[in-house]
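Example A, followed by Example B.
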Amino acid sequence: MTFGPLLKNPLLNPLDILRFLIFGMEGQDDTGLLGKITVWAVLDWFSSLAMIVGGVLPYVPQYLKIKKTQNADGFSLYVCLTLLIANILRILFWFGNHYELPLLIQSIFMNLTMLAIIQLCVKVKQSKQVIHGKEKLFTDFDWRFFWKWTDFRSYLEFVAVFTLSSSLLTYLLIGNVIFVEALGFTSLFIEAMLGIPQFYDNYVSKSTLGMSRVMVFLWLAGDSFKTLYFFTKQSPIQFCICGALQIAVDLAILSQTVWFGSTPGRRKGLAGSHVVQ
């Protein structure tokens, strides 16, 4: 992808340049237009847009549900922790290996979404406290209450500390190819393992009762599209490997629905218990 045709054309406006940066469309003539809009170009735009917003869409209904019911017990904040760490590392990986910009923007959107969910969950939990005990804060450095803090600021402080320390380490080792590649693999591997708690929960309980098959099918559809996007865009190998790993985890969870069926298993009497989302 080259910037030559854009920079030489004085008639292009900032929107054209932004569209070029995000979707990879180059100018094709000297009229100030981006060139012919083909079917493949439109598909490329839509696939890039889907990558940007597709990752956060599954969490929009969850946010709205928590806000409507004023109950955050059915959602694990460790999902937010996992995705925050994975996407912070993925953003840092971009500085060492410039992958597609839609994937970078997706990571930024995902972090903002996770912070919004954390803020809502903390607010809801605070409103339900009848007796207000001692607050649990990040600055207490009591690891028994790690990621169980009672104020939103503590979560922001942890994210800031993790981001700054990771950024400093990346800045010092950005010239080390092994470190950069390991950074990318670590970020994507963490995200790829997001479905493992669900698989383990089903295995221990010998049941998939309470698990939404539709949710898992959506995981599989989204991960399949994402992995296909990685291959067609020739993304760094870490994206392709971890995308394939996510598909394998999704298929493993779906296989449990066949193997265990809808029998209660060890969940008998616990149908209303928490299921990893």
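Example B, a separate protein, is given below in the same form.
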Amino acid sequence: MDCFTAALRSALVFFLVNLFVVRCDITDGNAEHLKREHSLIKPYQGVGSSPSSQWDFSGSTLVTSSYVRLTPDERSKQGSVWNTVPCHLKDWEMHVQFKVHGSGKKNLHGDGIAVWYTKDRLHPGPVFGSQDQFFGLAIFLDTFRNDLHGMDRSFPYISAMVNNGTVTYDHGKDGRSSELGGCSAEIRNREHDTYLAIRYSKGRLTIMVDVEDKNEWKECIDIGGVRLPTGYFFGASAVTGDLSDNHDIISMKLYQLMVEHTAEEENLDWTKIEPSVSLLKSPKDNIDDPTGNFRGTPLTGWKIFLLLLCALLGIVVCAVVGAVVFQKRQERNKRFY
């Protein structure tokens, strides 16, 4: 029993250490690694249609000195803002400060914001103001529920999707069939600043939010096996339909992560990588899954320990049962002599 207790204590310590690493792994915004050519910062002097501009916009987007408003609180609007410089970083982290607000009451507002890292830019379309069947990564901040049967989650809802140009975003199901994971977050009509962090490093995608005015990140999505190429563009878009909201981008700041790669990884042509997610079933395989449970993640240390512990207990139980059965048979055989 003492050994068992010690093992449990060791597992608990291991779990807490891993949790601490996850919490502290998000960059503190060190200006040293801020990539200004990929960052959208007040007073937005680099935004425009001139050849020297690093950001361009389309649709209903309004650029002021305090915010970039993708849509006003009006019906049937869509707008976007896109970086004109392709990103060639292998490991990066994007911090987005945003604000979603409007006069609509509960459940009478829409539709939300999307943050993109995609092959193409400035292509208006039906997915939060941008094109469907895209190549790359999308993070959706969805404020309106379309699937009235999906009552197991509350809105607003944040989700992630990786696409290689073959998968269609299912509006009717709020993207369940293609999402990698997600979380609910109260992001609308907040009196304080709201933030989203997107980290991609060594094949791992981590999404964090800071929407409670506590100055701390809360994990939303953490998934491995994600492959994204270099040379894609960052952007943000938003759309309104019969219901509306103001969708504002305050800033988008991209940080380079200093990560070591193997010689094989360094020699790889990262521009030729096809966006994909391994260790998971394909989004296409998930289309017929009514629950949309496309959220598996690689086993972490504490999960592996629990599986080994369960396996060990199973072996012990089988051994005890086998010993009892063997003893009973021996006693029965003795009675025959």
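On Example B: The two ends are 41 Å apart (CA to CA).
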